[in-house]
Amino acid sequence: xxxxxxxxxxxxxxxxxxxxxxxxxxxxxxxxxxxxxxxxxxxxxxxxxxxxxxxxxxxxxxxxxxxxxxxxxxxxxxxxxxxxxxxxxxxxxxxxxxxxxxxxxxxxxxxxxxxxxxxxxxxxxxxxxxxxxxxxxxxxxxxxxxxxxxxxxxxxxxxxxxxxxxxxxxxxxxxxxxxxxxxxxxxxxxxxxxx
Length: 195
What we know:
Blueprint: E1 17-21, H1 25-37, E2 42-47, H2 52-60, E3 64-67, E4 80-83, H3 88-101, E5 104-107, E6 120-124, E7 127-131, H4 138-151, H5 156-169, H6 174-185
Parallel strand pairs: 1-2, 1-4, 2-3, 4-5
Antiparallel strand pairs: 6-7
């Protein structure tokens, strides 16, 4: 059985510079999901032309749009790049340029040219769940996202906030705090005994 060796992290993309190369449907999709999760992300888009919906979304979120062909100079100062043009040769050039500059890159729908994947994301207040299928099945990630959106209660954020307040009242070292929180929250994972 193949292992998923991806390491999940949550990036503060409002503190990082993101470049999206491509202005078509896939570019709109990547921008939409990025901004849905991180509305204050620092994003620049480069493409010879953009969809009207992309322009509207970009204006609402202060995304910088550059209507030009891709050039490696656009990588300057970028931390993360997403290549999603309809030209494989451009996407592969973006990949090679990013690798040469040690910039994380994702070439849409082309796992061998990805340092990371943009998985399914479920957000309920402060709770965020990311789902990965190791690049094998975006459809499965989408279905799992829909499942978790339904099963995670809307008020789970209240639990998080209350636990944070409780944590702030705890005295002692890190281990004592972890033990107290584990005891307080163990009912969340214990199976209810049948009566």
